[in-house]
Amino acid sequence: MNEKLRQPLRERIHIGRWAPIFAMVLLMVILGLYTNGKQPSFSSSFNLNGLLIATIPLALAAMGQASALMVKAFDVSVGALMTVCVVVASFVLVADRSWWQLAIGMVCVVGVALFTGAINVALIRVLKLSSIIATLSTMSILQGIALWLRPQPKGIINYDFTHTLLKSVGFVPIAFIAIFIIAILSDIWLYRTSGGLAARATGLNEESASRRGVRVSKLFVRAFFISAFAAAVGAFFLAAQVGIGDPQVGLGYTLTSIAAAVLGGASLLGGRGSFVGAIIGALFLNVIINILPFLGWSASYGRIAVGLLTLIALSFYQAPELAKRFKAAIANKSLSRSKIV
Amino acid sequence: MSLQNNKNQDSVLSLSGISKRYGPVKANADITINFRAGEIHALLGENGSGKSTLLGIASGSVTPDSGTVEIAGIKLNSASTKDAMELGLGMAYQTMTEVAGLTVAENLYLAAPDHVRPKYGQMASWAVNKLEETGLAINVFAKMEDLSLAQRQLLEVVQALLSNPKVLLLDEPTTALGHNDVERLHALIVDLASKGMGIVYVSHRLSEVLDVANRITILRDGVNQGTFDSNDLTESGVVALMIGRPIDQAFPDRNVVTSEKVVLQVSRFRGRRFGPVELSVRQGEILGIAGAEGNGQTQFLRAIAGAETSNGEIICKGKAVDVKSPPGPLRSGIIFLSSDRKQESIFTALGVRANATLQVMGRYGTLGFVRRRNERAPVSELVNRLRLKAASTEQPAQYLSGGNQQKVALMRPFLRGDLNVIIADEPTQGVDVGARLDIYRALREKASEGCSVIVKSSDPIELAGLCNRVVVMSRGIIVDEILQEDLGERRIIAAIIGQEYKHGGTK
């Protein structure tokens, strides 16, 4: 084989990209074993099943967020959009509906989400608003719409719908497996195809990418449609869990979806990230919340623990950068010293 | 008729009647040029003569106000870099278009149009082949940001060639290249031209371009000065056409520097893109910094002002200056006027008065409260003295013209009592003629009050008219010094070109 074609092993397996995700998995295992030692019921299939089901909406929202962050944009409206989708579902996905009525209802919910995505992208690309401001505004509007449609929690979600969605094999929900497979395929797309390369390049340097012939606007449209679609699907699972049209249900998802995506390797500066990582990030956050009652900790400690563990996980991303800077500083010092002599 | 046909076949890029305005500035005025297949066509002009705008229009990244672009005989209907590329135009940009964070192979792959792209999995071997074709020894798995500037600049040319263009535009392709790389690049483009590609070559380094160019077109102030056969023009002839106007007589009188006292002493000073630099500036002296763009002048000045990381020693009036961050030099009485006025110099939302007194707030306040009453008189006096044109001293700076914004920034050194050095980076960039003179006068006044002034300018006329002494920088170091008695526009240009030549031609 040609000498030049041999990529160094270190680079081929992309340690920088995957190490923090492994670190998170390791942390989860350690936390899990520790908790299990104190309370064996942690590893009951009932608890693990509940943990995974609770993770699904956040995992989807985080994947959507990762697709927005990939092109260096934030989708702050994710949480509110999920709320609206749940509320709409509480009108169209109620009891005593035939399967085709449910299908139409689901199309309605997805339609609402994609419409919101279209508005977001129009605000960002046509009106040239910053993505944070644009989606912050749509978030507020969506929040208002949710409260207007359902001032109080009301509208019971169809039981068959719920039941089908949450079906599990052993303790693993089928939906979780499906999402994980989609994430793996998405990561392969992102790092092993020209389309993924164009998306990463757009996030890293939009102007250069467009000068080199990448249709940047198209990628933005796609990123926001993916984010909106993921929010809609996430909302189905959220609706299945809460079972009622709650106008506040999605509130926390905006910030946690960003946190999960970033934990999973997404960079706020664009061009980096992983969909599998986003799921692991979502799982990580849910594991922390899940173990607290087993350890007898109150929710207040829980919040602090979530913050601290997030910081620990994130510091793994800075490690190579810090090492590089440290090396450069030393090199610089010795350079200037040798110059004086 | 047959002649017309012939001309059309021959032409790989034809620009006709191109005009483009930016606000009041006419960047291009009715420019018509035909670039032929198989020729190396140099496009020359001073900074701001409209070359970059013209290239932007030709490559589809800038929309002209009027005029048409034809690539290989087909009209470019709307400004689109992708369409231009598909019609057969390759462009190596001056501000390079590499995507930091991706590898060399990924960058090349991204730049390749669909029909020449290999399968994604074969990217690496394809990229290795492409680099071998152009004789570049670069690891295709290296991250773009880990390459040297020269390597990135050469890769920019490789990227432009990936689409097998009929015409190749090179915008200042050698600013970061050493002699050997320049030779290699020239060999490459001569070879490409012999195979029928049209090359449009823009560069400040006259001697280099004139070595390889077949024809030359010269722009001045956005106007085409004509296209010439390179055998018909000498280097000085080109310079005369580029400058084309008599030297401005309107510079204020130069005061003779009598003081031998050194105010600023720079030694073993090095940083990103410059160094080591040794330099001393005397009291009352205006020192000019000349050189082709991108040779470290700006970084050098910014480093003295503490805005760039650096190593070495700066002594101001016998005391070491802390240049780790901007407040250090400010404490030592060194004030910096950035070339990026809107970003780094003035606060666009604040008024004239607030902008002027920002750094000397303590003088006008009591117990930390600013007294507007105290500020008003000195500011109004300065408004008159600098002939600042503003609706009032409270008018936000964003509504002022470029020249008046610069005057606002210049008020700061006037308000400070303990000032030693003014560093001005392109003080008259984007400033109209009338305001320019006011700015020159203001700098002279400060100099005659005993301040030292360092001016970096890309305008040799300005340096010749304003300075007591000019040093020329090339590739980050000072390579020539011109004293007052020899100072002249031609001497400065010759020094810049000469240095390029010396560097480029040590055979």
List the helices and strands and how they pair.
The complex is a heterodimer of chains A (341) and B (507).
Chain A: H1 9-12, H2 15-38, H3 45-70, H4 78-92, H5 99-125, H6 131-149, E1 154-156, H7 159-165, E2 168-169, E3 172-173, H8 174-192, H9 194-204, H10 206-211, H11 216-242, E4 244-245, H12 253-263, H13 275-295, H14 299-340
Antiparallel strand pairs in A: 1-4, 2-3
Chain B: H1 2-10, E1 11-22, E2 25-36, E3 40-44, H2 51-58, E4 66-71, E5 74-75, H3 81-87, E6 89-92, H4 104-111, H5 123-133, H6 149-161, E7 167-171, H7 179-194, E8 198-202, H8 206-212, E9 215-220, E10 223-229, H9 235-243, E11 262-271, E12 274-282, E13 286-290, H10 297-304, E14 310-316, E15 319-320, H11 327-331, E16 334-337, H12 341-345, H13 352-357, H14 361-364, E17 365-366, E18 369-370, H15 372-385, H16 402-415, E19 421-425, H17 433-448, E20 452-456, H18 460-466, E21 469-474, E22 477-483, H19 489-505
Short description:
Chain A has 341 residues and is mostly helical. Helices cover 76% and strands 3% of the residues of chain A.
Describe this structure in words.
The complex is a heterodimer of chains A (341) and B (507). The relative contact order of chain A is 0.18. Chain A has a single domain, classed as Orthogonal Bundle (ABC transporter involved in vitamin B12 uptake, BtuC). In chain A, a hairpin with a 2-residue loop joins strand 2 and strand 3 (172-173). Mean pLDDT of chain A is 88; it is low at 335-341. Helix content of chain A is 76%, strand content 3%. Chain A has helices at 9-12, 15-38, 45-70, 78-92, 99-125, 131-149, 159-165, 174-192, 194-204, 206-211, 216-242, 253-263, 275-295, 299-340; strands at 154-156, 168-169, 172-173, 244-245. Chain A is an all-alpha fold and 341 residues long. In chain A, the strands form two sheets. In chain A, strands 1-4 form a two-stranded antiparallel sheet. Chain A has a two-stranded antiparallel ribbon with strand order 2-3. Chain B is an alpha/beta fold. Chain B has three domains: 2-243, Rossmann fold (3-Layer(aba) Sandwich), CATH 3.40.50; 247-333 and 418-507, Rossmann fold; 348-417, no CATH class. Helix content of chain B is 36%, strand content 25%. Chain B has a six-stranded mixed sheet with strand order 6-7-8-3-9-10, sandwiched between helices. Chain B has a six-stranded mixed sheet with strand order 16-19-20-13-21-22, with helices on both faces. In chain B, helix 7 links the parallel strand 7 and strand 8. The longest helix of chain B has 17 residues, at 489-505. Chains A and B meet through helix 9, helix 10 and helix 14 of A and helix 3, helix 4 and helix 5 of B.
